[in-house]
Amino acid sequence: MSAALVIYEEEARRLSGICERLTRDASAKVVFLVDKNGQLITSAGQSQGVDTTSLASLTAGNVAAMGGLAKLIGEEEFPSQFHEGENESLHMTIVARKAVLVVVFDARTSLGLVRLRVKKAAEEISRELEQLAKHQTPPGTRSPLAEITDEEIDNLFSA
Question: For residues 96 and 120, is the Cβ–Cβ distance under 8 A?
Fold first, then answer.
């Protein structure tokens, strides 16, 4: 399992903007950005009535399962997947090996348009996630909070 993404307000705003633009440009119903651990990062479009918690965790599970299948046939992963339903379809793309961009669309648009718009949005999201990585604590360094003992926390809250 990969480390959880820590997203700051400014990056969250920019990621939401990219998803909103993708929803419009691809004529999608809804767009979700999910981290590979199954946490929803942001969504845009008609997400009312969608259980976003389940969608995020099932997306991560699907990507993990497909990654296992990919390895069985000698691939590292399947960077994008398409699932066609009777009324709605789903397109998923792995972005920067950290997140999954999920686009739900119907007959108002085409898979070709969705793929074209997803490619551009994924590049933008990838740049944002690279910037975000620069803010993260480098491996091997300790957070200042790691030096606080349980006793100090108890004393703080019992005062």
Answer: no
Does the domain at 9-158 match CATH 3.40.50.2300? Answer given as no
pLDDT digits over 63-79, tens only?
999 999 999 999 999 99
Secondary structure in 3-state letters for the chain: CCCCCCCCHHHHHHHHHHHHHHHHHCCCCEEEEEECCCCEEEEEECCCCCCHHHHHHHHHHHHHHHHHHHHHCCCCCCCEEEEECCCCEEEEEEECCCEEEEEEECCCCCHHHHHHHHHHHHHHHHHHHHHHHHHCCCCCCCCHHHHCCHHHHHHHHHC
Sequence spans of domains, the chain: 9-158
Q: pTM of the prediction?
A: 0.80
